[in-house]
Amino acid sequence: MADPVKLTIDGRQIQAPPGTLVIDAAKRAGIEIPAFCYYEGLSLQAACRMCLVEVEKAPKLMASCTLPVAEGMVVRTETPQVAQARKATLEFLLTNHPLDCPVCDKGGECELQDMVFRYGAGESRFTEVKHHVEEKQWSPVVFYDAPRCILCFRCVRICTEGMGVGALGIVNRGVLSEIAPNHGDHLECDECGMCIDICPVGALTSGAYRYKTRPWEMEHAGTICTHCSNGCKVTLGVRNHEIVRGNNRDHSGINGEFLCIKGRYAFDFFGHPERLQSPLMRIDGKLQEVPWSRALAAVAAKFQEVKGRGGKFGVIGSTRTTNEENYYLQKLARQGLGTNHIDHHRSGDLVTLIDALSGRPNASLATTADLYNAKAVLVVAADLASEQPFLSFQVRANYRHHQARIYVVTEKAVREDAYAAAVVRGGVDGVESLRERLAREPELAILFGASVKGEELRKLVEFGSSLSIPVKYVCLLDYSNSRGAIDMGLMPELLPGCRPSEQPGMTIPEMLACADLDVLWVIGANPLARGQLASANAFAVVQEMFLTETALAAQVVLPASSAYEKTGTVTNVTGEVQRLASPLRKMGTKPDLEIIGLIAKEMGLAPLMGPWDAGKVFDQIRQTAPGYNLPLPAIASGGAAQTAALNGRVAAPSRPELIQSAANGLFESGTLGRYSKILHSVLEGRGRT
Amino acid sequence: MTFSTELEAKFARLLASYPPGRQRSAMIPMLMFAQDELGCVSAELVNEVARRIGVTPVQVEEVLTYYSMLHRKPLGKAHVQVCTNISCLLTGGAELWEQACSRLGIGHKEVLPDGSISLEEVECIGACSWAPAIQVNYQFHHFVTPEKLDRLLASLRNENPHAV
Amino acid sequence: MLYNEPSPLEIKVLTRRFGLPNSAHIDTYLATDGYKALRKALEMTPKDIIEEVKVSNLRGRGGAGFPVGMKWSFVPRDSPKPKYIVVNADESEPGTCKDRLLMEFDPHQLIEGMLIGALAVDAHAGYIYIRGEYRYLIDILDKAIAEAYERGYLGRNILGTGFHFDAYTHTGAGAYECGEESALLESLEGKRGVPRIRPPFPAVVGAFQCPTILNNVESFCAVPPIIRDGGKAFADLGVPKAGGTKLTCLSGHINKPGVYELPLGFPVDKMIQEVGGGIRGGKKLKAFIPGGSSCPVLTAAECEGLTMDYDAMAARKTMLGSGGVVIMDQDTDMVKAALRIMRFYAHESCGWCIPCREGTAWLRKILQRFSDGLGVRGDINLIGELAKNMLGRTFCPLGDAAALPTISIVEKFRDEFEAYLTRQPPPSRAEEPLRVIA
Ligand SMILES: Cc1cc2nc3c(=O)[nH]c(=O)nc-3n(C[C@H](O)[C@H](O)[C@H](O)COP(=O)(O)O)c2cc1C
Ligand code: SF4
Ligand code: FES
Q: What are A549-585's pLDDT values in tens digits?
């Protein structure tokens, strides 16, 4: 590294690496220079002129957002001249900007409002007629109000650079300039809403949120998105026990500023009118509402009876319940009910990967941070932009900020093609043709989709090792806690922490096909959407949010809370454990942890199970599941803790034939997606329902 | 979209004029030359140019709406551009503009109903030393007087007998 | 046919072929020392070529007056990237109409200038960016380029030396801002004419992200005479810090408006009276724009003893600019002039930065209202203050170009603004709608 540059900002001696911009150097020293167009990580604009500062010996004010530090430079960020310039710029900005903060959707969290408050350009000398343009709706979720737009171009940049979509442009010139969508009068894009979040003013607003409330009237709960395995942190704005907004308030999650459409808008299943709010029991052949006590008693009695006579249980766990719930469930199944017939919907062959990596010193699992830092990234058999939105963003950011080389081996065209160093169209064998180039890389991160499993996956790992460079892997998975379901032992062949079970039980297809199954207990899954239950006499208990195909076939349906109403932890696709935290609860529902606990209690198994308190259960996980002995403060404060890498053989048979990804695109998310009006409205808008 | 063979030849030459991978450079000339042939830049043309140079249509829109000589709607067969910038202003350009408007009964960027003549008040066209100046399509008229303007408008009408 | 009679006071260096029959044809060019400088340059080292241009004291003719030789020396010759020549033929500065003539009457001189520039920096391709309105020049230049290819002055193995160079014309489409060098490069790359962040300057990162020398047409056209006759001869024509001649465009209230090639340092008074034949109608000079509408306006008194050169203009707080001299007589309405100038900048502001985008639009509205007789006393100070709030704070010099003349007009002709306030207001008039471009 070159020697740091020494300079003075506001009288303070500061050191910064060469090439650092003055605005960043100042920020690191705790001096905030105001700016609209400057946005860390996006290309430089120097358009808003708010960041002008005084630099000794310079004939005029300089834009600190494009000014690299120089040895001996003396900068002053708050002189009367600077303040006057900022006030003047704000006065210019307000000439055509509506002065109706009290009714603007952004009021209260508007950067322009804050800036005017700080520099005072409150009274205007502008007495001319303002240039007016009507507000436009560009998509079900994106509205644009040109007069409020200050043309900082953050939206255009986040869409083009961050998302790799490029759906927004700038049209006209001079004072008539405005932002325009890619299809004349409407947008066709990922609908991620990044443009809305990044807009400093009320120009871009969210169709899902606008004019519903005021920012200060909401409670803000930082939790983890429940839709896919990437584990983005999302801030839910809650008012009157309803979620009114999802956004990315403090950028404190692993996802930084990123959220996709699901994370931002598809919380609306929460308030869907078909949400179950009372337990149901099959009485006279029909599902009828009953009190919790009756339903729980019936379930416990049945379980007790079947257990007593050594009957057959089949337990199907969820990919979106918490680690605590998953752990508690398998414990009750294995130790309480005495069954190893427990499974979940498998969407990636992580087990084979862990096994294949054992004993290879130069190979390990990648973290999301690795995807941003690795010098080279290889994407195999996966459409990241569609199915793994945040990982896709991360890889793109790595390319943008570090010029990482991206390699693509996929059957179909993918977004990464546009900036890939090399693209191979075809199956996983295609990696061979990249051998020479990859071997010349200093390191590599490989992401692979669900179709790479079993022997093929072992071959891929073999290929990775043969490159003789450090290689890290991501086995792509579907759902918010797919990873946690594996780690917590929701598999007949594996106990928590991938320890082999001595007596592997039945898998999902085997349970469904088992003619003499006595109880099928399903938590947050919908196996009957695709399968048939062979056992005519099986007593089905389903914990669900909606009357899914499986719930409709149940004897007892117990209304479950969603991830947005729970506390506990989930583990994302790259093994980062994060905390769910929410002040919400849909009336009538209970978190699955509590439901499982209550069933255990009814069965007299409370002493065995311990309390259904997420913290206490997590303590048990830390002790039993290798890799999960994590620093609690990191998680408790809303951060992410990386599970320790397992290194060792997984002495259990891998079942690649059971692995099937739902390949959920951007606008789909299993059962939750079916009950999101927002996702539907976007699809309908495109005639693709 | 199909174009005349001359225009296709121009396109081919343009696309070969820039370094490899820089075909986007041909965008503005392509739009200008195509507009000369087609009368305006239609949505279809936007898509066609975007396709040929490998950009998105919105990237073409961005450019199209920036440049004052590119337009989405057809102008008159004779597009009369009257400069009223400083040198022309000092020598009667503003009066010529008023005269043209009142003679034709149309205003800025308007077209006679029969499409023969359109008017535009333009910024300096680089004829300041021979002001006041007018451009009809790409042709310059220098030292324009009110009489010359009347004759010019009349001749444009004669070429286009259906004009008012 | 020339557009105006030449003046006997001219020193014809760049324009010496103007008026010759068929002056644009390569045969005419070759018969009058054409491509001689190229042959000479082919024998010189790049360093010597640049040195010769430095000796000539040639300063950029596009407006900023930066020494051309120095600019060329900034090109990193050892960079592995290709290098480019870009000719700024966007000529859009109000009052300026000289580059047009250089291209119309002597296109080969420009091509030869590009070739010599290419030798100096090891470039192998060059683009002439021509404003869209000058369509006829594309035909003329394309024809000249074709002739040069045919005779071996362009293409592979030029004059058997192994040197190769390709020249292309490129049309703009109506945008003053594309005359600004970095906006021009964006436009050349098929984008909106929005300037780039500088540094890096084009010499280091220019066209297609490669080192580029970008100069005005007249700057390139001065290079063949400099190489042919030596930098010193050119330098001697001008003043100590600025060599050679300058094409000067006289316009406005003058008897013999036209483009004249005058040595730098030519007295303004002589230029108006003898070259331009005096103010029209025997009137008196009121205001003087020395180099296009972006320059601060001078009063008649300020023109006394003034000469046409960079430093003399700087001493009077204005600029030699592009050579667009606009003469305004005693009857000129300075409020209307200020309005027209601001209308231009509001129309041409690219919209990128706040002070220019909003400032020009606001000033245009105030000046329009003022000139409509609806001004109020506070407007006069407000106009000056707003212009000063733009000055030095915009992303590119267009903001200054709009602010400077405005400040100079309200300050120097304040009495005219005051007088407007006491006039009878005309019948009320609807707000003029903003022009939608495209
Ligand atoms: C708003 C603006 C418009 C300009 N227009 C032109 C122009 O039309 N022609 C030109 O040669 N230079 C123009 N310039 C100057 C160029 O930026 C650049 O300095 C010049 O082309 C460099 O060439 P030179 O050194 O030979 O003068 C303009 C500058 C600005 C800021
Ligand atoms: S990427 Fe996945 S986890 Fe992140 S916001 Fe989108 S759906 Fe949620
Ligand atoms: S001012 Fe009219 S041509 Fe220049």
A: 999 999 999 999 999 999 999 999 999 999 998 878 8
Q: How confident is the model over C129-184, as pLDDT tens digits?
A: 999 999 999 999 999 999 999 999 999 999 999 999 999 999 999 999 999 999 99
Residue A87 sits in the same domain as residue A188: no
Interface residues of A toward C, Cβ cutoff 8 Å, are 44-50, 52, 59-61, 63, 66, 85, 88-89, 91-93, 95-96, 125-126, 128-129, 131, 150-151, 170, 172-177
State the chains in contact with A (3 or more Cβ–Cβ pairs under 8 Å). Answer: B, C
Whole-angstrom distance, CA of residue C176 vs CA of residue C183: 10
Atom of ligand 1 nearest to the CA of C401: 1
pLDDT at C74: 98
Asked if residue A232 has its Cβ within 6 Å of ligand 2, the reply is: yes
CA dihedral A440→A446→A451→A453, nearest 10 degrees, is 90
Q: Which structural domain range is residue A315 located in?
A: 280-347+481-648+664-678
Q: Dihedral through CA C116, CA C118, CA C121, CA C123, nearest 10?
A: -170
Q: What is the pLDDT of residue C438?
A: 40
CATH code (residue B125): 3.40.30.10
Q: What is the pLDDT of residue B92?
A: 97
- Per the domain annotation, does A252 fall within a domain? no
Residue of C nearest to B68 (CA): C174
C-alpha–C-alpha distance, residues A320 and A327, integer Å: 13
Helices C46-55 and C217-229 meet at what angle, rounded to 10?
Answer: 100
**What is the chain B residue with the closest CA to A177?**
B66
Q: pLDDT tens-digit profile of A512-532?
A: 999 999 999 999 999 999 889
Q: Where a domain ends, among B66, B94, B111? A: B66
What residues have CB less than 8 Å from C39, skipping those under 6 apart? C159
Residue A268 falls inside a structural domain:
no
Q: Dihedral sign, CA of A149, A151, A154, A159?
A: positive
Domain final residue pick, A192, A207, A222 = A207
The closest CB to that of C328, out of B32, B62, B90, belongs to: B90
Q: Which residue of B lies nearest to C338 if distances are taken between CA atoms?
A: B86
Query: Which DSSP helix (H) or strand (E) runs through C215?
Result: strand C212-216
Size of interface B-C (CB pairs under 8 A): 164
Residue among A52, A93, A174 whose CB faces C351 most closely: A174
Q: Which of C102, C180, C188 to mutate to test the pocket of ligand 1 (most atoms within 8 A of CB)?
A: C180
Task: Say if pTM beats, i.e. exceeds, 0.90.
Answer: yes
Helices C398-412 and C334-348 pack at an angle, to 10 degrees, of 170
Cα of C398 to nearest chain A Cα, Å? 12
B43 vs A contacts (CB less than 8 Å): 184
Query: Which of B6, B46, B80, B90 has the most C C-beta neighbours within 10 Å, making it the best mutation to test the interface with C?
Result: B90
Tokens of B160: 């286009």
Question: ipTM for the complex?
Answer: 0.93
Q: Identify the bridge partners of residue A220 per DSSP, sorted by sequence position.
A: A237
What pLDDT is stored for residue A648 in this prediction? 80
- Rounded to whole angstroms, how far apart are CA atoms B74 and B109? 10
**Which ranges of C164-215 would DSSP assign to H, the alpha helix?**
181-188
Which string of b and e fits A107-122 if b means at least 16 CB within 10 Å? eebbbbbebbeebebe
CA distances, C34 to each of C112, C119, C233 (Å): 8, 17, 18
CB-based contact A294:A300 (threshold 8 Å): no
Note whether B58 contacts A173, CB cutoff 8 Å: no
Residue A640, by phi and psi: left (phi above 0), alpha (psi -120 to 50) or beta?
beta
Which C residues 360-399 touch A at CB under 8 Å?
A: 360-362, 365-366, 369, 378, 382, 389, 392-395
